[in-house]
Amino acid sequence: MTKSDSIADELPLAGLRVIEFTHMVMGPAVGLILGDLGADVIKIEPISGDKTRKLVGSGAGYFPMYNRNKRSICIDMKSEAGKAIAKRLIADADVVVENFRPGAMEKLGFGYDDLAADNPRLIYCSEKGFLSGPYEHRTALDEVAQMMGGLAYMTGPPGKPLRAGSSVIDVVGGMFGVIGILAALEERRRTGRGQQVKSSLFESTVFLVGQHMAQYAVTGEAAKPMPVRISAWAIYDVFETGDGQQVFVGVVSDTQWEKFCAAFDVGTLGDDPGLRTNTERVKQRDRILPVVRALFKGFTKAELMERLEHTGLPFAPITRPEDLFDDPHVNADSGLVELNIPGDDKTRLPALPLEMAGARFGARRDLPGPGQQTREVLRETGLSDSEIDALMADKTVA
Questions:
Q1: What is the pLDDT of residues 57-112, one digit of tens each?
Q2: Most buried residue, 121, 208, 291, 358, by most Cβ within 10 Å?
């Protein structure tokens, strides 16, 4: 895919108009996915710009990662003139996405009922902390959802709940929002009417830990946190190599056990008929693991990975995020998208993890500056340059 606008006409969501009132990660992730797939995503920012642009520390990557393939227009949403401009944009839009605190959009007069009255075909996606229920008015963050949804408990060691190392729930909640939007678009094709779609952080977390809930239902035993879990397989762990590096290796079937024994000298373990089934190997895990740990210590990381590469066994080096810039697979076939970032620098960030018709999706539009496309977008609504100049002069738009 190229940055050419002509490519947009060939993409799956070509012709879809999305108006985005979002900040941080969850809401922008919805617009990112829709935009990468070809939708025209117009990001509504405050006159001073989205505050996410100015985050530091762990938030410094939020805006660059989740805001490509969008056009930016800055509007004073507290003014009546600004609200009128926003409603003018929404009048012929297909989708509105918002992720502000509960009641914020309704207070502005931009709740679903307000907007659907003028545009009954509108699909209105609200990305919230909670779906309907006793908690729905609470404010939530990714970390809040991970803590109360059981994920932090399962990730950290006992007594030390630990959030996952990325904004996983924000992103998953955004993905579920996109699924809801696509389903609503298909229903609109049949009925001619739009609807409100809601996705949430808490329920997304509960869905992710559903496998542990099911484990309890099936076995009657509560799932233990991952660091002290009872593994379903004897070899399914991180191992140290002779050069002080680490590699994860898994042997998750009886066939893989045979391949493992054929590829490595495991001594008497390979000839033991009592280890031919996974159930028996798990029972004897304390016998197997010391042998395997000592075996892998005899290899460097590169040597071990080279041997594993030809076995068909699941394995992985322990990679840091910054290492992925140079990963040969990530760099193959447009896996990273080139973008400009603040400071007149360029970087490459992950493309959607998706292929369609053998192609990946890239950046047709770079990261927008605050209000970079304000004039362009307003012209498309039929406003003249003199009218736009007047709106800019009184700071209704920027």
A1: 999 999 999 999 999 999 999 999 999 999 999 999 999 999 999 999 999 999 99
A2: 208
**What is the per-residue pLDDT across 339-379, written as a single tens digit (0 to 9) for each?**
999 877 999 999 999 999 999 999 999 999 999 999 999 99
Helix, strand or coil, per DSSP, at residue 7: helix
Q: Quote the pTM value.
A: 0.94
Looking at domain 229-321, does it have CATH number 3.30.1540.10? yes
For 107-160, write each residue's pLDDT tens digit.
999 999 999 999 999 999 999 999 999 999 999 999 999 999 999 999 999 999
Residue 58, both tokens: 């762990």
Q: What percent of the chain has pLDDT over 70?
A: 98
Every domain of the chain with CATH number 3.40.50.10540 lies at: 5-208+368-393
* Residues 217-242 pLDDT 10s: 999 999 999 999 888 999 999 999 99
Calpha distance 146→137 (Å, rounded): 18
**Spatial contact of 18 and 98, defined as CB atoms under 8 Å apart:** no
Cβ distance 98 to 22 under 8 Å?
yes
- Which tokens belong to 371? 């209000």
Q: What are the C-alpha distances in Å from 121 to residues 182, 198, 245, 302?
A: 14, 17, 56, 57
For residue 259, what are the CA distances in angstroms to 131, 174, 256, 266, 281? 47, 40, 5, 12, 15
CB atoms within 10 A of CB 100: 18
Q: Residues of CATH 3.30.1540.10 domain(s) within the chain?
A: 229-321
Q: What count of other Cβ atoms lies within 10 Å of the Cβ of residue 23?
A: 21
Q: What is the DSSP string of 306-332?
A: HHHHTTT--EEE---GGGGGG-HHHHG
- Would you call 286 exposed, middle or buried from its count of C-beta atoms within 10 A (0-12, 13-18, 19+)? exposed
Strand partners, 346: 340
Sign of CA dihedral 312, 316, 317, 322: positive
DSSP 397: B
